[in-house]
Write a structure and sequence with these properties.
The protein has about 170 residues and is α+β, with helices and mostly antiparallel strands. Helix content is about 30%, strand content about 30%. The longest helix is centred in the last third of the chain and has 23 residues.
Length: about 170
């Protein structure tokens, strides 16, 4: 029995609905966390807990990202949230698809295409959640953007998943 008492890095899961995005990705990573045994929320609620209300330090990093990247033509979080083509948003990501065991969020721009999968799996008595991020850059601006945000991305995803490992989480809805 594996004890995922913390967020661990793993290989991207082959059974994710974004597995077809893996080939040729410019950024791909997966992290897993064990959910508390009584946490039976749906995938949208889990995504809201992980990526909705963020701690101050993440919010400050995101404000810095917006301030640096906006002059280069990268959409800010506010601009992404105002795009009306998405039926639902979680944080500034569009809800691409929702399934009982997986939710896929995304953001596409002229410089890159991004997908984030949250995949719930059960291994024995363990209720696991894997976050997989996949990015395909479209141009040099996308390459620059990924090289700048890569270290912060890893820390933010791990911290966001760690929020789900806490024994008591209230439903955000």
């Amino acid at each position: 029995m594996r004890a995922w008492t913390h967020v661990g890095r793993i290989s991207p899961p082959a059974d994710s609905r974004i597995a077809d995005w893996y080939e040729g990705a410019d950024l791909i990573d997966s992290y897993v966390v064990q959910l508390p045994p009584l946490l039976t929320l749906d995938m949208v609620s889990l995504a809201h807990i992980a990526f909705g209300a963020r701690p101050l330090w993440i919010e400050l990093l995101m404000q810095l990202r917006d301030a640096i990247m906006k002059p280069l033509g990268v959409k800010t979080r506010e601009e992404l949230q105002s795009i009306s083509d998405a039926p639902q948003r979680i944080a500034f990501f569009s809800l691409v698809s929702e399934h009982p065991d997986e939710i896929i969020l995304g953001a596409d721009d002229k410089y890159l295409d991004f997908r984030l999968s949250l995949l719930r799996t059960v291994e024995g008595s363990e209720n696991l959640l894997t976050a997989t991020s996949v990015v395909h850059v479209r141009n040099r601006l996308g390459t620059l953007y990924i090289s700048v945000i890569r270290p912060f991305h890893k820390v933010i995803v791990r911290a966001s998943l760690a929020r789900l490992a806490r024994p008591v989480i209230s439903d955000p809805c």
